[in-house]
Write a structure and sequence with these properties.
The chain has helices spanning about 45-55, 70-85, 100-115, 130-135, 140-155, 170-185, 200-220, 235-245, 265-275, 285-295, 320-330, 335-340, 360-370, 380-390, 395-410; strands at about 25, 60-65, 90-100, 120-125, 160-165, 190-195, 225-230, 250, 315, 355. By secondary structure, it is an alpha/beta fold. The strands form 2 sheets. The protein has an 8-stranded parallel β-barrel with strand order 1-2-3-4-5-6-7-8, surrounded by 6 helices. Strands 9-10 form a two-stranded parallel ribbon.
């Protein structure tokens, strides 16, 4: 879109995130996403289909499961790892594991069986409230961290070290645990907002603090990840704040699946990173990816869900539709996609849809008929417009077609 047509206050005082930053995404749909209490665990065929859609969207890494959870989790994790190797995918796998050898051993076995190193995402609770409940000391967590990370590293696994509820963990414990993990061989660390407590400022503060007080003093090249939940509805804003503070990778799940109200939504992170200019990818499969996850997990996508929801680029309001139609008449689809939308639909393989309902104008009717290849006579337009004004909702395609047929039918001759 021409910059002189849109004044962007988002960057009035400069970009919040410097251009040129490489930002990666880790997809948690097939692990954390399946911990949502309402979802169906998809079949392995469905999981493989979703994995290929992740690959088509350029997602960098994927959590393929927690194989220590049981036989089915183990079998599915191995099958997904084999698919990545067999199909020569670019996406790189990781697996969740408690900081316990019994959880790490299955990852080692699967890595050896498929002939590919799988990153071990070893996690443990860290916040004072969790330590109180579990009767844990920081010294105990340090020893647990050291044993688990060294065990995984000695087996040739890359390690991503995770503390749960990092956003509510005191600074000294953050320094102590992550420094221990890095000394033990971890080359990636994950800062978590496990219960959705963070605000954007909190996410920024935690990431910045950890980089300055842990990563830089270590003298090692450490990837810093952010894993956020959406309990306060701030997950996307928090993820962007984490990136602004220096996070290298953000974790997310399709259609915001995950514990309680879910994780950062992957499709919306992709949309925002694309619009900010931090990634440049073909995202035409975005809706297909979201709908595949929706179907496989039996989780409906709300009609008003951003970008991939049914109503995201759909309007029946006369004023809005009239402006969009005028833009189309200028033979400028990009203008039409921007006049009443902050998200250009064409960037994501989608288009504006104009419906006919009680708030519509005659221009809605004319546009609808034109798009459906129907000649707009005065009688047809009048009949549809009148029906729309008397309706309580948007007219369906079947209802409009029936009205067209009624208008086109010959009038009965008087006897």
């Amino acid at each position: 879109m021409k910059h002189d047509l849109i004044h962007d206050w988002n960057i009035y005082a400069g970009d919040e995130i410097p251009s040129g930053r490489r930002v990666m995404l880790n997809d948690e749909t097939l692990r954390d996403g399946l911990q949502n209490p309402s979802v169906r665990d998809p079949s392995i065929g469905e999981k493989i289909e979703i994995l290929h859609l992740m690959e088509s969207l350029g997602i960098d890494t994927v959590n393929i499961g927690l194989p220590g959870a049981g036989p089915r989790a183990y079998a599915d994790t191995e099958a997904l790892a084999r698919e990545i190797v067999h199909s020569r995918m670019k996406i790189r796998p990781n697996c969740a594991a408690r900081t316990h050898k019994n959880d790490i051993k299955p990852i080692i076995e699967i890595s050896e069986r498929v002939g590919f190193p799988i990153e071990a995402a070893t996690f443990l609770g860290s916040s004072p409230i969790r330590r109180l409940v579990e009767d844990w000391t920081v010294e105990h967590l340090q020893r647990t961290t050291e044993d688990a990370v060294e065990f995984a590293v000695s087996a040739g696994l890359p390690v991503m070290y995770v503390t749960e509820d990092t956003i509510r963990t005191d600074p000294s414990t953050v320094i102590s645990l992550y420094s221990t993990a890095i000394r033990s061989g971890a080359r990636a660390i994950v800062l978590c907002d496990t219960v959705g407590h963070a605000t954007p400022r909190g996410a920024y503060n935690l990431v910045k603090f950890t980089i300055d007080e842990v990563v830089k003093p270590s003298g090692r090249k450490i990837r810093v990840d952010w894993h956020g939940h959406n309990d306060r509805g701030l997950s996307i804003a928090n993820s962007l704040a984490a990136i602004a503070a220096g996070a290298d990778q953000v974790h997310a799940a399709a259609i915001s699946l995950g514990e309680r109200v879910g994780n950062t939504p992957m499709e919306l992170m992709l949309v925002n990173l694309q619009l900010i200019g931090l990634i440049d990818r073909n995202l035409s499969n975005l809706k297909k990816y979201s709908e595949a996850v929706s179907k496989a997990t039996q989780t409906p996508i709300p009609a008003n869900y951003p970008v991939v929801g049914r109503d995201a680029f759909r309007t029946a309001t006369g004023v809005h539709a009239a402006a969009i139609i005028k833009a189309y008449k200028k033979n400028d689809p990009e203008l039409a996609n921007a006049i009443y939308s902050g998200v250009p639909s064409h960037l994501f393989g989608l288009e504006q849809v104009i419906e006919v309902g009680p708030l519509s104008g005659r221009s809605n009717v004319l546009f609808w008929l034109d798009r459906h290849g129907i000649t707009a006579t005065d009688d047809i337009v009048d009949r549809i417009f009148s029906a729309a004004k008397q309706s309580e909702r948007v007219l369906t395609e079947e209802e409009i077609v029936a009205l067209v047929r009624l208008a086109a039918a010959p009038s009965p001759r008087p006897h």
